[in-house]
Design brief:
Layout (H helix, E strand, L loop, with lengths): L1 E5 L4 H10 L4 E6 L5 E2 L5 H11 L2 E6 L14 H22 L3 E10 L12 H17 L7 E6 L4 H6 L10 H13 L6 E3 L5
Parallel strand pairs: 1-2, 1-4, 2-3, 4-5, 5-6, 6-7
Length: 199
Amino acid sequence: MKILLVGASGTIGQAVEANLKANHEVISANYANGDVKVDLGSPESIRNMFEVVGHVDAVISTAGVAAFAGFDDLTDIDYQTALNNKLMGQINLLRLGKSFINEGGSITLTSGVLSREPMHGSAVISMANGALESFVKAAALEVDNFRVNVVAPVFVKETMAMMGMDTESGLSANDTAKAYMAAVTGKMHGQTLDAPDYL
């Protein structure tokens, strides 16, 4: 398959690419580098990316920016960034990319466990994740020539270690990548795939 991987330079993105590239053609898309550059916060940038890349069998997004901060510390910019990038950026991959997906292909987006298991500091991220999961469930009812799903990772061990957190409750990036592999190669449609379920 020809697969466009948005956010390939991130911790999860790198693991997904490593798992895919042995058997598939992977086109990496990132904000600052990769085979093609894309700014998820810009619909025009997303349009340009698809024009450059052309038709693909699958799109995977492991990208999306949202702030982690206490409720009283969140600013207007924090909310707008999460809405424009993490949420609408990924929604626009479907809206603007749907005509570039080959028949029977798929689009896989990324939410996160904080949609259903929020914690202190996660208000903006939980908002974007929950909205994205609901969007995928609804959009799938009207998309019938390819599949659309969303993967919900838990905290990634590598990121937790970098932040000085206890990594026991986390999942490695490589194990997280298994949910994305299942989304691309499976038959599910309109589903939220919880990463721990695919170990």
